[in-house]
Amino acid sequence: MFTPSYHDGVIQHLITDVSEDDFNVAVGGQVEIIGWLYQYYNTEPKDRAFKKKKYLESDIPAVTQLFTPDWIVKYMVENSLGRYWVDVLQAKGDPRSSREIAEDFGWQYFMPEAEQSDQISIQTNVDSLSQADIEDVTLIDAAMGSGHILIYAFEVFMQIYEREGYSHRDAAKLIVQKNIYGLDIDTRAFQLAYFSLMMKARGANRRFLTLDIRPNVFDVPESGELTSADFQELLQSEDESKQLDYLLDQFRYGNEYGSLIQLDKSVDWSMITRISNQELDEGQLSLSSIVLTESQDKLREICAVGKILSRQFTIGAMNPPYMGSGKMDSILGKYVKKHFPNSKSDLFAVFMERLRSLTDTNGYYAMITQHAWMFLSSFEKLRSVLKADTLINMAHLGTRAFEEIGGEVVQSTTFIFRHQTIANFIGTYERLVNFDSQQKKEQAYLSAVKNTDVGYLYRTNQANFAKIPGMPIAYWASANLIHDFEVGTRMGELVDAKVGLQTGDNNKFLRIWYEVDNKKISFRSVSISESVKSQKKWFPCNKGGAYRKWFGNYDYVVNWKNNGHEIRNFTDKNGKVRSRPQNTDYYFREAITWSDITSGEFGARLVDNGFIPETTGMSAFYKKMDLLYLMALLNTKVAGHIFNLLNPTIHLKTGNFVNFPVLLTKDIDLTLVKKCIDIAQTDWNLYETAWDFTTHPLLTHIADDNLSYCRSPVG
After folding, report:
1. Is the C-alpha dihedral spanning 677, 682, 684, 685 positive or negative?
2. Pair 371, 396: CB distance under 8 Å
3. Do 54 and 193 lie in a common domain?
4. Are residues 276 and 383 both part of a single domain?
5. Kind and range of the H or E run holding 527
6. Could you tell me the CA-to-CA distances from 378 to 375, 398, 542 in Å, in that order?
7. Angle at 69 (CA atoms; ends 437, 359), nearest 5 degrees
8. pTM (whole model) above 0.85
9. Locate the Type II methyltransferase M.TaqI-like domain: which residues (predicted)?
């Protein structure tokens, strides 16, 4: 396993690069080391899998695992399990505030909720909590990896048991037997989680390894080709046969579905247990009896996991796997579309739905996920489902939440939901997106816990989200801005926002304008009919481009000869058309445009008649409102703020654009707008890369008869 040298390889790095505390079980070091080793040994298979267009079943564990930072684990557990127990104590009459109880336990990542009305407090402190017993509180991690979350949950459970008067020895047994559950599809991860829990329990009870107690963590099994026929001699009725076939069918692809498996029909678990444990008739050992014994072993595993997946838990906590639907193989993709239509766009969102269904009513579920579900239209149905629950707290992390993931692509958020509707509840949100490292985010969060007056902590009623089109989780929107969404006119009522031409192969059909013969370019066609009459091959193409306001990015031309005949008939080797000429009625019309990728500020530009919009050059066309009026609004700082609220990812689509609220007024001086466009146009045309270029600014004082060599061939 390790390189047999203390001077290089894994052992050398463990000795020199890892602090001594990371090996210290007393400070949680054991699970840190196990988790990082697990991630280290998945590095090579992950790198290989990332190069594939579709992931195989065997790729899923490697490409979807990511070790959760320790502080985020503590945030999730303390604000779910810890919060639940705070609710229990207060329901039993504890007069202390949630902050005081959390401080007494030493839960430094616990964020006290905002002050609520008395009515809300009554709703949340339901009668059943006053009867709660710690032995009945359960927690599940449905994609446990190496067990990081489960190990910290063990520590929090141990604290609670101690306060309830249990000994360490008894508490360790009860936690492993009754409180903690975990599932994964990776056998190695399961083994590491199993080992970590056993060692954690052994630390609290020296005799634990002799007690024959098995942790409730499992590698989700796969039934393969097993059917009820393989157990025929053990079955007593046709109904038993049907139930067994149903159960085996659900686990047919257990290594792909994992804890997404949902048992919609009731199963007689006592019957399944009887079949899996029934002793075979004594007699001569035969091949069939050996095969049946092996089948019973597999059925016992399926039974154990099936029971877990068919029940609910007090607490759910997990870092789910991430995988876009485009990377799913056909088996997983079809299953997700059928059973999770509201969240099918990404595996992390599917697990949000699944963990929610695994959580008891009035329980809490905590997760860290990509933040796309908060804003994108593809997750709007999921947001609609989640609004039935109460968003208690969110630490919006943004980029660089994980040290090993650099760049600005992966944006994360971690949050706590209560599986209950609490009307008018005021949730708490920590906006940590502007802190540029994992350590800075952690410190900023802890500062917000201590001082709720920091500028990046927000309190809001989640009912406000529904007042914004698309229902984004825009917790930082001010009351005035939310009011603007309520009374303003949607941009979609004033303009037609459209997606443009998808050529199927831009390298084949697009050129920078000066790469082709000018005589074959029509710069002035204003309709498809004019473009055909021109008999030209190339036409200006709006392809987005770099950030720029008012005017510019006139770079590309597209082959649209004879109304795009060649593009329209562009097929793959199987004869399937690859191109998609969309919204052709809007080709060659004046428009407002912006670039699809808006990682910086938002910038709107005017596009003259004569352009064909491409998919990355988003365009809005006249319907009811003068485009110049809207340009004045869209190029303000306020517009950028609103678009960042509607969709803070790097892609701003037409669906986001049409939801912009417009407050109609006549107090707009359009002469200033025209002046801004003229200035930007003059700036764009100063250089030879513009097709309306005439003279370089450095040559303006040279006599006209010496300038002919630098005239634009178009001008």
Report:
1. positive
2. yes
3. yes
4. no
5. none
6. 9, 19, 26
7. 125
8. no
9. 178-396
